[in-house]
Amino acid sequence: MTKIIFMTAFLLSTIISNSASAQNAEDIIKYRINIMKSLGNHISVIAANLKGKVSINEDILPHSQSMLLTLSSINIKKLFPINTKASDSSKTKALDSVWIDKDLFQKSMSQSTERTKDLVTAAESGNNQNIAKSLGALGKSCGACHDKFRKKKN
Amino acid sequence: MLSYAAGCYGCHTSDPNKPFSGGYKIQTKYGTFITPNITQDKTSGIGNWSKTEFIEAMKHGISPSQKPYYPAFPYSWYSNMHDSDILDIFDYLNSIPSIKNETSPHDLKFPYRIREALWLWRIVNKNLKNNKKGGLEVTNKNRGEYLIKAVTHCSACHSPRTWFSIIKDHENLNGKIETKKLLNDGSPNISKDKVKGIGSWSESDIVFFLQTGIKPNGDFAGKEMSKIIENGTSYLIKEDLEKISRYLLSNKNN
């Protein structure tokens, strides 16, 4: 009888702990997707002005700065824990290479941060041609990172 | 501009300090194509070519020594180009520094390495026969179509192909599903379909994308398209990009 009670308690605790860690993984995935989306939204705002869809050019600088703040504050260890790979969850596109090539991932993220600093400098100048050039360079840097570390969209 | 928009620079440059001198590797399921030197160097480049030989290569895929080119070289699109545009490219290549650079031969699998088999491929490929002699007629109205079908050759990547690697329909820009991950040969749907394609994009969205690689949602072009934008479409003037956008959004056949 004691054996049965122990076994049941062990199984229950395993199930509860697994579900807690799964929930945590799903939450962190959702959280980092929101961060990435927020970066995309800042870019859309800047791009809308450059395309001439809207003429609220004074928004370009604060959105560039917000992007820089967001990127600079990313903590890769906390944002990409080991149990949040695309191979663990269908909700993320993060490839295993994020964890296999950690240094390269960190370097790619740092490069994008540097390109965002250039964007802020261009935004401070108020010259839309320079801003477009810097935004293009940032896009190239982000795109290169996505290629290596994000699952392709179907 | 044409030498960039048509992809000559992008495909024939492996080292930006030696533009157009070839050596760029194109990985495909058939093996690796290594692009040749197209600068005016007389031994390793095309310095001995006549204008007629250049047109023959660009429009019909036949080398001066009468060998067929592999279709990795998109001559079946360039055959829609006007001779005057092709000669503009020839003149441009004549104006840039000649670079000596002997490139390696293609590294292809069997049986694709048998170049003579291409004669059969050319017989089967009806697209080669359908192209209009003298190139597509160009008016101000259809310049976007001309640029897409003759110069930027979008359907080379964005159209489904048969098992014989022949484009099924040049008007179909529904993209391709990746066959093997390593080949990176999938391509997105760029038809005017609002859900599957780019129909929800505006003209200015497409222009901006072809200039910078930035999509309307703030995401970015993938590696291959980024290269095409950086080395190709970003060289097109805004008016031409607007015409391309208009054509993509109005094309009745996709």
Brief descriptors of the model:
heterodimer, A: 154 residues, mainly alpha, Four Helix Bundle (Hemerythrin (Met), subunit A), 6 helices, 76% helix, 0% strand, B: 254 residues, three-stranded antiparallel β-sheet, 3 strands, globular
Word description of this protein:
In chain A, α2 runs antiparallel to α5. About 5% of the residues of chain A have low confidence. Chain A is an all-alpha fold and 154 residues long. Chain A has six helices and no strands. Chain B is mainly alpha-helical and 254 residues long. Chain B has a three-stranded antiparallel beta sheet with strand order 1-2-3, with no helix packed on it. The longest helix of chain B has 13 residues. Chain B is globular and about 50 Å long. The two termini of chain B are 28 Å apart. Chains A and B meet through α1 and α6 of A and α10 and α11 of B.
Order of helices and strands of chain B: HHEEHHHEHHHHHHH
> With helices defined by DSSP (H or I, 4 residues minimum), what is the helix count of chain B?
12
**Domain count of chain A:** 1
Oligomer: heterodimer
CATH architecture of chain A: Up-down Bundle
| Major pleated sheet of chain A | none
Biggest interface, chains and residues, is: A-B, 24 and 24 residues
Average predicted local confidence, pLDDT of chain B: 89
**Would you tell me the structural class of the helices and strands of chain A?**
mainly alpha
Helix content of chain B: 25-40%
